[in-house]
């Protein structure tokens, strides 16, 4: 509902109250005193409000409650309450959900935990609870333990994975746990989430009954051959961003496996035919490894596979879409289900088979950075749902097929040998989508050189010309005064521009044009370096192309880094040129978005156009190694941090609070991303509170905040809202 204000105090007078559910409203303030009088209360559900208060005091008030859900509120304080204050509650409580609050301090003391004999579910996720975990061996009925996204550390209690506690789900992700998980002996554990910690050692030798295992973003090492001893009950497996090595040649038969993710490790050897041992696979993610050999054709005959990412490896040979068996299955009504195919940054050869047009549900196709040749098949036009197409850095020739999908929001065919006219429905993309390379392409007259809104500038001039006749009627004295004001304004504006360029760190060394790209800035990729020893306020930029996540497996790729360091009012730029490859900088492709709208801030500032008009990607170092968190204020919007980090983006403007970008997600949804200035935000809880307040505002002239990102360092603060295309104020004022 939409109830607001504090919870009425008279509720505490309902002595016979058994069930109280006020969830998903807008109640605020603290709980009324006198809850200790509600001796008959068994269920207290207040989740999704704006309630606040000390959690220790509240727990001390409750007596015989069995079910407590206070999640998604603003309760604060610690859990280290005296044993005598929770003894009455501990006798009856079965279900406790205090997640997504502002709890801090230490965890429950071991002597207090021992009182909760009937506890079955404990969810304290997404708070700021710190310290080590006590023993849970005295909880004979605990089925679900969720403590993710806190500040816990130390070893994982062995009783949680070795069967002393009958857990079915364990979530300790996004903390600071250390040590290793040698074996999982629990016969009841189905879901194990230990991602984004500091776990090390080898993979566990056994998983027993586990169906979902997420050990991603740790420091686990060793050979993946230990997986050959794992039980066949796995459904979802994520071991990405670790230090695993070895080959995948001896995988067991995981009959029910749906997701297989080992990206960003050091795997070698040939790519196995995973579909032979796991016939219902839906997602295969093996990018950023050192796999070699040919791609098995079985990936393209599966009736279940939806996403295949093999980018950033050393794969060779053709794309296996041809052959009687494959061709036959490609036209079957049950095939294919594939929506995403990424084979970029390998060494694939041959042409792009015409059978690609039969993968009718394809939304993403990325073949960039290979050695493919021949003409682009006209069957690409059959992919009506295609939103993301990158064929750059290959040897394709001939014409670009007509009538490619109107759903395309990201497109790049640069660094090929294409010729002929650009199809009409692709003329909204800037030239950076087609060049460098493709010297025989015929660009239509008036097509923006790099999406810089030249036509909009002409409209701007006409706008001023239309006002010229009015100015003629002004008396001479007014004209002279106006000219003087203009000269003063221009002098001030020029000084401001110099100051802005100095403060932003964009000098000729970083934004200077090259002859091949019309004097425009090279594409950059924003990165947060969690391990860097730079000053806390530094940002670093890289010349990595927009589709690659700093891959160590893409050989020969050089980086161009420029570091912006802010120190109060004094700011400077340091440019590392030791590893600059001039040819790489001149030919680096850009995944281009649509051109700027007429009212874009880019249109009214030529200096800003030269510096920022090419898109950048908000890449937060390696997406799987992010230590930050993405919070949504609206359940209708959902995407991952990795999707955001790989989203092509362009600068919209810069203000006193930070820099504004337009980012396009893989599904085509466009966001406005506000990268907040260093020092503007200090404390996470206060920031979250204010963002939630702003996000709750609804007005026809206000674009609400949809989500925000909080990283571990000061420069990692982002506000996200929907992108609204409209004119800017300057266009109407001047």
UniProtKB/TrEMBL annotation:
Region (Disordered): 504-525, 573-606
Location of the protein in the cell: Membrane
Biased amino acid composition, Polar residues: 573-584, 594-603
Protein kinase domain ranges (all copies): 646-734
Organism superkingdom: Eukaryota
InterPro entries named in the record: Inactive_SerThr-Kinase_ABA, Kinase-like_dom_sf, Leu-rich_rpt, LRR_dom_sf, Prot_kinase_dom
UniProt KW keywords: ATP-binding, Leucine-rich repeat, Membrane, Nucleotide-binding, Phosphoprotein, Receptor, Repeat, Signal, Transmembrane, Transmembrane helix
Pfam families: LRR_1 (PF00560), LRR_6 (PF13516), LRR_8 (PF13855)
Assigned GO CC terms: membrane
Record GO terms (molecular function): ATP binding; protein kinase activity
Stated name of the protein: Protein kinase domain-containing protein
Organism: Gossypium lobatum
């Amino acid at each position: 509902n939409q109830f607001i204000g504090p919870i009425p105090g008279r509720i505490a007078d309902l002595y016979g109250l058994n069930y109280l559910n006020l969830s998903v409203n807008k109640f605020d303030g603290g709980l009324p005193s006198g809850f200790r009088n509600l001796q008959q209360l068994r269920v207290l559900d207040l989740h999704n409000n704006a309630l606040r208060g000390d959690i220790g005091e509240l727990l001390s008030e409750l007596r015989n409650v069995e079910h407590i859900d206070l999640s998604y509120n603003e309760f604060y304080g610690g859990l280290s309450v005296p044993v005598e204050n929770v003894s009455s509650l501990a006798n009856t409580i079965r279900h406790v959900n205090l997640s997504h609050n502002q709890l801090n301090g230490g965890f429950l003391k071991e002597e207090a935990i021992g009182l909760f004999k009937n506890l079955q579910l404990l969810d304290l996720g997404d708070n700021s609870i710190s310290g080590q975990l006590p023993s849970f061996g005295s909880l004979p009925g605990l089925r679900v333990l969720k403590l993710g996204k806190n500040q816990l550390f130390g070893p994982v209690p062995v009783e949680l994975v070795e069967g002393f506690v009958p857990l079915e789900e364990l979530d300790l992700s996004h903390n600071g746990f250390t040590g290793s998980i040698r074996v999982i002996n629990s016969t009841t554990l189905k879901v194990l989430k230990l991602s984004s910690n500091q776990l090390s050692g080898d993979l566990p030798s056994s998983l027993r009954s586990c169906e979902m295992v997420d050990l991603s973003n740790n420091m686990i090492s060793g050979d993946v051959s230990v997986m050959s001893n794992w039980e066949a009950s796995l459904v979802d497996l994520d071991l990405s961003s670790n230090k695993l090595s070895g080959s995948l040649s001896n995988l067991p038969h995981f009959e029910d496996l749906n997701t297989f993710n080992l990206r960003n490790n050091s795997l070698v050897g040939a790519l196995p035919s995973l579909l032979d041992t796991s016939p219902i696979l839906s997602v295969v993610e093996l990018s950023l490894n050192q796999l070699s050999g040919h791609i098995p054709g079985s990936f393209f005959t599966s009736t279940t596979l939806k996403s295949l990412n093999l980018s950033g490896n050393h794969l060779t040979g053709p794309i296996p879409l041809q052959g009687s068996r494959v061709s036959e299955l490609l036209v079957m009504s049950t095939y294919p289900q594939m929506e995403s195919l990424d084979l970029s940054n390998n060494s694939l050869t041959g042409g792009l088979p015409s059978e690609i047009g039969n993968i009718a549900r394809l939304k993403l196709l990325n073949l960039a950075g290979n050695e493919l040749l021949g003409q682009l098949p006209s069957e690409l036009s059959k992919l009506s749902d295609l939103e993301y197409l990158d064929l750059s850095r290959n040897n394709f020739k001939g014409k670009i097929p007509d009538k490619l999908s109107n759903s395309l929001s990201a497109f790049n065919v640069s660094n090929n040998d294409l010729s002929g006219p650009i199809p009409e429905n692709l003329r909204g993309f800037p030239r950076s989508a087609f060049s460098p390379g493709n010297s025989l392409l015929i660009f239509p007259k008036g097509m923006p050189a790099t999406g810089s809104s030249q036509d909009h500038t002409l409209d701007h001039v006409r706008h001023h010309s239309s006002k010229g006749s009015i100015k003629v009627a002004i008396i001479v004295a007014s004209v002279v005064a106006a000219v003087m004001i203009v000269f003063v304004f221009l002098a001030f504006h020029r000084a401001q521009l110099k100051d802005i360029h100095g403060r932003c760190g964009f000098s000729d060394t970083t934004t200077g044009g090259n002859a091949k790209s019309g004097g425009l800035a090279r594409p950059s990729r924003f990165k947060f370096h969690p391990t860097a020893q730079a000053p806390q306020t530094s940002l670093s930029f890289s010349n990595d192309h927009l589709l690659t996540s700093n891959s160590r497996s893409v050989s020969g790729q050089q980086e161009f880094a420029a570091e912006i360091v802010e120190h109060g009012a004094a700011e400077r730029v340091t440019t590392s040129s030791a590893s600059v490859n001039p040819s790489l900088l001149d030919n680096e492709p850009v995944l281009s978005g649509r051109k700027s709208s007429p009212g874009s801030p880019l249109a009214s500032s030529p200096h800003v156009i030269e510096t920022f008009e090419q898109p950048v990607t908000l890449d937060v170092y390696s997406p799987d190694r992010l230590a930050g968190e993405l919070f949504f204020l609206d359940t209708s919007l959902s995407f991952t941090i990795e999707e955001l980090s790989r989203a092509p983006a362009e600068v919209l403007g810069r203000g006193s609070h930070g820099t504004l970008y337009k980012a396009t997600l893989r599904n085509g949804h466009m966001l406005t991303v506000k990268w907040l200035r260093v020092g503007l935000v200090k404390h996470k809880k206060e920031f979250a509170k204010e963002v939630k307040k702003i996000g709750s505002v609804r007005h026809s002239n206000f674009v609400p905040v949809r989500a925000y990102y909080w990283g571990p360092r000061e420069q990692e603060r982002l506000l996200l809202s929907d992108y609204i295309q409209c004119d800017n104020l300057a266009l109407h004022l001047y």
